[in-house]
Amino acid sequence: MTTTESGSPAPVSGTFPVTDEEIAARVKALESLLIDKGVTSELAVDKIAEMYEREVGPHLGAAVVARAWTDPEFKQRLLDDATEACREMGIGGMQGEDMVVIENTGDVHNAIVCTLCSCYPWPTLGLPPNWYKAPAYRARMVKEPRTVLREEFGVDLPEQTEIRIWDTSAEVRYWVLPQRPPGTEDMTEEQLRELVSRDSMIGVGLVAAPA
Ligand code: FE
Question: How far is the CA of 168 from the centre of ligand 1 (A)?
């Protein structure tokens, strides 16, 4: 049996990350089954995929972050009730009914995972990346987040920074308000949006200061 560095059994279904081919095969199988059973139709599946490809994506979350960085009252509303604050900006819907935003500070770094499956705030971050759904990410992120952040994502946090991992579920969909980088004081909300990456809102990346 393979073990992880902490000595516990490694996740059974393989390596990190899962390949695109594996995921495509699983999706295809599931889709066929759901269509066969009459749960959904091919048209509905295509429509949803198209919407998430073209309209919904991390650019919406980035707009929320940029606004929070520039408008303290909005930021407070976002931290108090993310679903409602996003709705103010016309952002919301399926898989985002109960969003909670947690703020990164100099002392605490937050990151999200769904240990059970792949729950994720779709309205603000789009569809989850493949690695987010991989068993190895889901298992290791809770056991050894500092190592995963450093080795898999190149985020080397100072020892004194506390790392908190939030287990996102179908009931509560967490995402992260990253720290505004220094040197951005003169930037507009529109310019700030461009800096904010998907990974920084998952908590596996930092927002880099502009070059
Ligand atoms: Fe899940």
Answer: 7
CB 178 within 8 Å of CB 196: yes
Q: How far apart are the first and last CA of the chain?
A: 47
Is the peptide bond prior to 17 cis by the omega test (within 30 degrees of 0)? yes
d(Cα 178, Cα 120) in Å, to the nearest integer?
A: 17
How do residues 52-98 score in pLDDT, each as one tens digit? 777 788 999 999 999 999 999 999 999 999 999 999 999 998 888 89
Q: Kindly provide the b/e burial profile for residues 3-39, where b requires at least 16 CB atoms within 10 angstroms of the residue's own CB.
A: eeeeeeebbeeeebbbeeeeeeeeeeeeeeeeeeeee
Kindly tell me the sign of the dihedral angle through the C-alpha atoms of 78, 110, 92, 193: positive
CATH superfamily of 2-8+57-202: Nitrile hydratase alpha /Thiocyanate hydrolase gamma (3.90.330.10)
Tally Cβ neighbours within 10 Å of residue 78: 25
Indicate the domain borders of the chain: 2-8+57-202
| 188 C-alpha to ligand 1 centroid (Å) | 35
CA–centroid distance, residue 119 to ligand 1 (Å): 3
